[in-house]
């Protein structure tokens, strides 16, 4: 087989890249180790920045998003027993974020690619990449019982943090920046009435988050020890913990319901520099991971492949690699801004094992400043909707 761009991974990055390339008349093949049903059913975060919504709209894959997504005009920081509203919509002149689950984004992109005759290979195995330091890279894999070699001009490594593309780059050709946080998130998906708000809560027992998905479905999280287990949390204990961390003098509350999913999410920051080697380019979680506090993971992946698609278009139009050579530098400017914002939100809202009363007073002082200062509120809003500078 031969194609112009071999894309390893059918997450948001790989699928959006294939979609963008198709619109430019550039061929691609997408390889995915999981089944289509699996990638369309894996529930992950789903807060979309304005630029992500705009790109999906401009490229014709936002029909369901615009009907079913839930724009949030602001976020609430909950502390001192009260909700404090940051009016992102007002501060950003009409820009906002939209809650639309990642697996729904994947469904939309898969459907668009298949409708356009795109080549998506699910349930492949034994994927290997090679010769990406030359002008003739290749990918080999097994699919439907056959061994296949795919020759290409470029390889896009969109296969996540556990994929094969990043480890295939020679040791010494990159630098890893890594930080592991001393806590995790316990997450639930619950059939419960919407709270109508996106709430980040600071509490002496630890962080909690309320993120309404639909009028009858909520995604909620609270901070736990990284060694904790789902087995330790029966439904009654979970709801008791949420009510304890979200209670307050203002009397605000929410309704519990049937919990249909439980999981524990590790908290980590990770960046590889550069995000390219030869003719292989890393995008999304293959190149960087952010803690979910800032809601940046999916949006960074989409921003990465927008830059990559632009660079590939320039190459196939002019034969020059200048835009591709600049890919990593362009992406990393935004990546590090998002890393900082996610770290800042995480540090401000979570209880750390070694903190003391002094540290807690500093966190509360920071929270009070953010909600009372126009400049501080503006900074949070600007980063939340997506800093593109």
Describe the structure.
This protein has 389 residues and is α+β, with helices and mostly antiparallel strands. It has two domains: 5-71 and 97-177 and 268-344, FAD/NAD(P)-binding domain; 181-267 and 349-386, 2-Layer Sandwich (D-Amino Acid Oxidase, Chain A, domain 2). It has 13 helices and 20 strands. The chain has helices at residues 12-23, 36-41, 50-58, 63-68, 88-91, 102-115, 165-168, 235-246, 297-318, 322-325, 327-349, 357-372, 374-386; strands at 5-8, 28-31, 47-48, 70-72, 75-79, 82-86, 97-99, 119-121, 125-130, 138-143, 146-151, 154-157, 175-191, 198-201, 208-214, 217-224, 258-273, 276-277, 280-282, 288-289. Strands 6-5-14-15-16-13-17-20 form an eight-stranded mixed β-sheet. A hairpin with a 2-residue loop joins strand 18 and strand 19. Helix 12 crosses helix 13 (374-386). The longest helix is centred in the C-terminal third of the chain and has 23 residues, at 327-349. The protein starts with a strand and ends with a helix. The model has no long low-confidence stretch (mean pLDDT 94).
Low-confidence stretches: none
Query: Number of helical segments?
Result: 13
Structural class of the secondary elements? alpha+beta
CATH fold label of the largest domain: FAD/NAD(P)-binding domain
Beta-strand content estimate: 25-35%
CATH architectural group of the largest domain: 3-Layer(bba) Sandwich
Inertia-based shape: globular
Into how many domains do the coordinates divide? 2
> Whole-Å distance between the termini?
40 Å
CATH superfamily of the largest domain: FAD/NAD(P)-binding domain
Q: Characterize the largest beta sheet: strand count, sense, and whether it forms a barrel.
A: 8 strands, mixed
Helix fraction, binned, reads 25-40%
Radius of gyration: 21 Å
CATH class category name of the largest domain: Alpha Beta
The count of strands amounts to 20
Q: What is the averaged pLDDT score?
A: 94
């Amino acid at each position: 087989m031969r194609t112009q761009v071999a894309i390893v991974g059918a997450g948001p990055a790989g699928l959006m890249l294939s979609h963008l390339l198709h619109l430019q008349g550039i061929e691609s093949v997408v390889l995915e180790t999981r089944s289509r049903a699996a990638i369309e059913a894996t529930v992950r975060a789903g807060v979309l920045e304005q630029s992500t919504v705009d790109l999906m709209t401009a490229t014709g894959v936002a029909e369901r998003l615009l009907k079913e997504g839930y724009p949030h005009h602001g976020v609430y920081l909950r502390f001192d027993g009260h909700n404090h509203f940051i009016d992102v919509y007002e501060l950003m002149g009409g820009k906002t974020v939209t809650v639309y689950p990642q697996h729904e984004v994947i469904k939309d992109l898969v459907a668009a690619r298949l409708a356009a005759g795109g080549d998506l290979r699910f349930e492949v195995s034994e994927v290997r990449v090679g010769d990406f330091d030359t002008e003739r890279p290749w990918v080999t894999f097994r699919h439907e019982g056959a061994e296949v070699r795919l020759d290409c001009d470029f390889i896009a490594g969109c296969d996540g943090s556990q994929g094969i593309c990043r480890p295939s780059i020679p040791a010494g050709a990159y630098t890893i920046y890594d930080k592991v946080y001393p806590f995790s998130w316990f997450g639930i998906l619950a059939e419960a009435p919407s709270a109508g708000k996106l709430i980040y809560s600071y509490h002496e027992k630890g962080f909690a988050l309320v993120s309404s998905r639909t009028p009858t479905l909520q995604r909620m999280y609270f901070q736990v020890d990284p060694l904790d287990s789902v087995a330790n949390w029966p439904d009654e204990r979970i709801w008791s913990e949420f009510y304890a961390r979200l209670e307050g003098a203002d009397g605000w509350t929410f309704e519990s319901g049937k919990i249909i999913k439980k999981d524990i999410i590790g908290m980590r920051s990770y960046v590889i520099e550069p995000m390219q080697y030869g003719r292989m380019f890393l995008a999304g979680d293959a190149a960087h991971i952010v803690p979910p506090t800032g809601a940046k993971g999916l949006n960074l992946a989409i921003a990465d492949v927008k830059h990559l698609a632009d660079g590939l278009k320039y190459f196939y139009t002019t034969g020059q690699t200048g835009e591709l050579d600049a890919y990593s530098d362009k992406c990393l400017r935004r990546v590090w801004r998002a890393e900082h914002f996610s770290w800042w939100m995480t540090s401000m809202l979570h209880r750390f094992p070694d903190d003391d009363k002094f540290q807690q007073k500093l966190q509360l002082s920071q929270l009070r400043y953010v909600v009372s200062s126009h400049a501080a509120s503006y900074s949070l809003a600007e980063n939340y909707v997506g800093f593109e500078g």
